[in-house]
Design a protein that fits this description.
Radius of gyration: 29 Å
Largest sheet: 6 strands, parallel
Number of strands: 6
Distance between the termini: 115 Å
CATH architecture of the largest domain: Up-down Bundle
Number of helices: 25
Number of domains: 3
Strand content: under 5%
Strand order of the largest sheet: 3-2-1-4-5-6
Shape: globular
Helix content: over 70%
CATH topology of the largest domain: Na+/H+ antiporter like fold
Structural class: mainly alpha
Amino acid sequence: MEHMPGWLLNSLIYLSAAVLVVPLSKAIGLGSIIGYLAAGIAIGPWGLGLVTNVEDILHFAEFGVVLMLFLVGLELEPKRLWSLRGPIFGWGSAQVLGCAAVLFLAGFLAGASWRVALVAALGLALSSTAIALQVFGERNLLLTPSGQAGFSILLFQDVAAIPILALLPLLAAAPGADDGMTGLQRLGEGLKIVGVIAAIVIGGRLALRPLLRWIARSRTPEIFTAASLLLVVAIAALMQFVGLSMALGAFLAGVLLAESEYRRELETDIEPFKGLLLGLFFIAVGMSIDFGVLLAHPLRMAAVVAGFMVLKAVVIHGLARPMQVPFQQRPVFTLLLAQGGEFAFVVFQAAGPAVLPPDVASFLIGAVALSMLLSPLLLVALDRWVLPRHSAQKPEQMEEISEQQDAKVVICGFGRYGQIIGRMLIAQGLKITVLDHDPDTIESLREFGFRVFYGDATRLDLLRTAGAGTAKVVVVAVDDMEQSLKIVDLVRENFPQAKIVARARNVGHVYQLLDRQIETVEREMFESSLRSARSVLEGLGWPAHEARESAMRFRLRNIQLMRETYPHYKDRAKLIAVAKEGRQQFQEQMAREREERRQRSHVDWDRVDDEKAR
């Protein structure tokens, strides 16, 4: 061991601790997050002392934050952000500003200076994106009202961290802070920070796609991944050069990559490491807990942790009702957002001694880490003593599919679309296996006699249990595009014998399914909209056969045009040009047919008049 390099020894310790402690934690019902935190405590300086260098721990924790925030940014598609702009910027700002105001007032009344109280309030107002999203995902709550509300608030917090970190140097330059800088120099530093962020965002938008396209042409996957990581490191280094956190740079790099058409390829490359990276981050959090501060001031630490969590819980619970979060989902929603978050480590470490004295920063970091340790424990307590009193239809009480199924058809998603498919197959005497992750939908369908299993079809183990390994057809009928594509990828990779019949939300979804060589794709509203158009024509007096013929021609031409535009859908300018040309040609063809129909109509009436004259 004495000849082993330090990085190799530390890696061995970290991985061994995770492999030993996390399965034990899950076995006794405490969950994986508590296991990672406990592993970090066990190997840290206040445990077995296998890792004692505090500086190494801090660097390791920062590296975990950098990688974790890169993955968070990678999930933050601008389109998705825009579609949720109301909840994100409305309720998100209400949560951050409301919690920060209450915490600032409490800190100031407790005797802290306004500068310390403000930085502490801004840091403590943020929640753990890593823990909250993982818990929402594990409990299949992301598509529920509480999951959507929590996701919107967490996204705003991630975005709000940018101005918070940019504000710290200005707080250091506030009146009374002697940093030896003139007012003009302080203004210059602030402008430099804003300029660098703007240059990264604007330059990334202009240069990123051509660069990734050029690298992708090399057809070397590892170089593509390396180039993406280079972008992360380069932007992180640039942010550190101007005095901001590397984690902020990594977050921006993730957002820039989320805008590119190669985002999904990158996600596929690093997805196997995502859970491990988050686990290593939690280990680092466990190691970073300074029990010396806790032991020196145990009552003060307990008061701060309990105080800020209770104050945040009061504000968040007050927001839950106007956000229309169901009553039975509010306890988990409130607890997950009331804890401290990983961004607080970044804020407190980036504040510097000019704003936050080192002993205060260490104390606050310990309080945040302790809250992150307590939250999963409190969640277990909620599951055992609080939530059982609420509705029995919550996901945590509904058992997942566990018995092996052998039907030849597996339907993933049993909403209004999947139900029609399932009812038709059942009417033909066919046996099907249905997976859905909405407990309310499942309970309702079971009352009507449908045999629906609770389970997340994006999980490979549940797909195997549902019988995808022997099924002839897998119907992907979920309405969420990302989940749909993930299920398709899982089935294509692991169950090649099964034919995939996929539901598409729109043409863009169709294109992504065609990228995966899925030929049996149906747009969810296309056929019913065509039938309604036929009804409109008939209502205007068209003969039924002509309305049907017109609708069928439109259908065939629309499908043909979609096939013609598919090769160009990643090139928006070319896509628009081809679509306009095809639509123009179709309109001209329809105009000619209308004229021919009108002339035939006149000829027919002339013939009738002649026959009457005879």
